[in-house]
Design a protein that fits this description.
Distance between the termini: 30 Å
Structural class: alpha+beta
Helix content: 25-40%
Number of strands: 4
Number of domains: 1
Length: about 120
């Protein structure tokens, strides 16, 4: 029953927004990814800046929680490494706020007998 709608496998790549990925890790706590802009032929695209993201895991009573964040304003790997802790903290605080909001919403639901 397609009904002319798009399929999940109908993927269109934005060829004007391609990046080559490099990963850097300290083998203990964090990974920094540098996304270098490239043209469709794979050559560097000097008209765009690289993007840096960070990844780590936080331990919780239920196991590790993956945390990924954008490292804003970093132009170099050194800047990304320096800014990573603040970016992770900002992301974790946003995750906590979102979890608390979901908890508040769940607690404020009215329970009506006979409804699931």
């Amino acid at each position: 029953m397609n009904n002319g709608s798009t399929k999940m496998t109908d993927i269109k790549i934005d060829t004007n927004n391609l990046y080559k990925e490099e990963a850097f890790t300290d083998l203990t706590f964090a990974t920094i990814r540098r996304l270098n802009p490239v043209n469709l032929d794979g050559s560097p695209d000097a008209s765009r800046e690289p993007i840096f993201t960070g990844m780590t895991q936080l331990m919780s009573p239920n196991g590790p929680i993956p945390v990924q964040c954008l490292i804003e304003g970093a132009k170099t790997l050194a800047e990304a490494a320096e800014k990573l802790p603040v970016a992770i903290e900002k992301t974790v605080q946003a995750m906590i706020a979102e979890a608390k909001e979901m908890e508040r919403e769940e607690a404020s639901k009215i329970v009506i007998p006979g409804q699931s």
